[in-house]
From TrEMBL:
This is 4-amino-4-deoxy-L-arabinose transferase. Coiled coil: none annotated. The chain crosses the membrane at residues 6-24, 36-58, 64-82, 103-126, 192-214, 226-246, 252-274, 295-315, 321-339, 346-368, 388-409, 421-437, 457-479, 491-510. Keywords: Membrane, Transmembrane, Transmembrane helix. It comes from the Bacteria. The lineage of its organism: Bacteria, Bacillati, Actinomycetota, Actinomycetes, Micrococcales. The keyword Nuclease does not apply. Pfam families: DUF6541.
Amino acid sequence: MTDLFHLVIAVLLVLVAAYLPGFWTVRALAGSRLLALSLAPAISAAVAGIGAMVAPVVGLDWSWLSFAGSGAVLVLAAWILARRGVRLPATLLDGPLVARRSPAALVAWIGALTAALAVTIGPIAARAGRPDAVLERYDTLFHLTALTYIRETGNASSLNLNAVANTAGRPASYPAAFHDLAALVPLVDIPIVLNGTVLALALVPWILGTALLARVVFPRVTWAPPAVALVATLIPASPVTLWIHLSPVPNLAGFAALSGALAGAVALWTALAAQADPAPQEAARPPRGGIAPAPARQAVIAALLAIGLAGAGLALLHPNVAVTALILLAVLTTVTGLPQWRRRPWLIAVPVLAMLPVAVLAYTPLGARVTGFAGGLQVPWWNALAEVGLGLLTVWPMALGVVMAALWWPGLVTALRTPQRWLTVAWLVLAVMYLDAAVDSPLNLSVLYFRGQDRIAIPLAMLSALLVVPGLQAWAGLLRRTLDVDAARGRRPVIAVLVVLATVAALSSIPTRLDNAAKNLAEHYPGRGRFLQADELAQFARTAPQLDRDRSILASPYSGAAHMYALHGLPAYLPVAGVALNDSDRAAIEAVPLAGSSPPHCRALLDQGIGYVYQERLLYQFDPAFRSIGERGDDLGTVVFETEHSRLIRIECDPGQ
């Protein structure tokens, strides 16, 4: 019960951090409440990411104090700009999210969304069993270690965080905005902090953001926001399912925030375009005093500031997300601005400037850290086409995705004949990138996504959820024509049948969700390795108080011992999978089989501060670089504990003179 309370506290604290600074920044610039809600997570991520980089420069540890100070500076700057006339324009996000409806309709939507959340989160909670469950994906190990490192050192800078990936502790860059927000949760155990932060940032910005995006894209469809929120909650390829599937938490948190950031960008672009191309009668009216009004230019400045801050936040969550945002902005401004290019050629510069950073990262050494990546899941081209065409995207594919695809495919076609045609173009662009990643195409269109279709699946699902709206409209028109259900009395039975079918489709996904969650959360799953075995967890918990915290544990980073840094504060010499080994590291690893009888090899261990060796036969993943750790060692020293598959040895060898 205490752990559950801590999980709730972590969720609430992270949501406060993820919304308050960004919300009040937009409000200070005279933006509406809904516009502020849409941009808040991305701007708050910028506050956290930039504040965490500034904090060590001015001699501060990362804490609520430094975070609040960073947010206050930004809000104050926005307020001063607004006083000087730099204010955001009125947008489609002015007014309520949903038009006033009957109390019964409101209760129905709330009940449906609550049920959808239960379908989505229930299987994960059932398989996890406890709030501090550790997800069995090796990305999880990095994030647990990174949060523990921030808590111990007080340094959460993106310029430093990747120091955990080398034994020398050399500063190295890693986008840390997710960890900066998570690290604000004090006292709570690190696994609970990680789980609570992911739940908060994968669910709320994603669901609320897609609803706000629907409000902007379909302003005259009153049921669009709740309907899209419902679809986004249930859609198989969502941020929360990507967490269990692969655990790239900075990516999924960024893509969850992208939906709201895109809503804000679309709203501001639409408002500024309307100002640039006023109605004929307004254009003919002479400006007051013969001077063109300044607020239009100042509104552009305010919009650029808001979108720029949101973009910085997305980049600090993960650069992949910022790249996606730029691609979607380029599509939006190209498709909607194309009719005006002849009259206003300068509009061409907008998509060009949006794509310029993408081109620089893809084709210059600046992106080499990503573009040089080799690997990823590759499937045959017909399999890739089926994944896209049938809605069976690689993140938790299930039959529910096929049902949803039957809704968004008509929307994809009909949207081409409406002002929302940019949605269709954007969907096609992301679908092509998904196919490129799935087959590892030589075109390398997905090179900035580590050629991983898993990541591209999330923004593709976001657009698919939106296209359900015109899809439902198309199906409704077909039903009216074929069944002649124009009268309200005739519509009600049809609606009732559709609700029942939708409920059955949603509930039918529960067995698949349970199985998918079990793959990475259950103690045992046939054919899948485990970092953590129940017996070794119990033994480490029993012996942790007796171990010397000044001496580290040498173990393969693909074993359970590496997690003990986050779980029990025990220093692991190789703290994360993918650690960069130096010559001293390799010498220490190779010394393990010989150190019991060879003083020089014993010194190779002790000189690195290693006091224990953990040997495990059931590794999560085998890497030949760490093979020597598991060899011999009977003469190294005292066995602290032993299980059927592992043992922890205290080094008591003779280092000589």
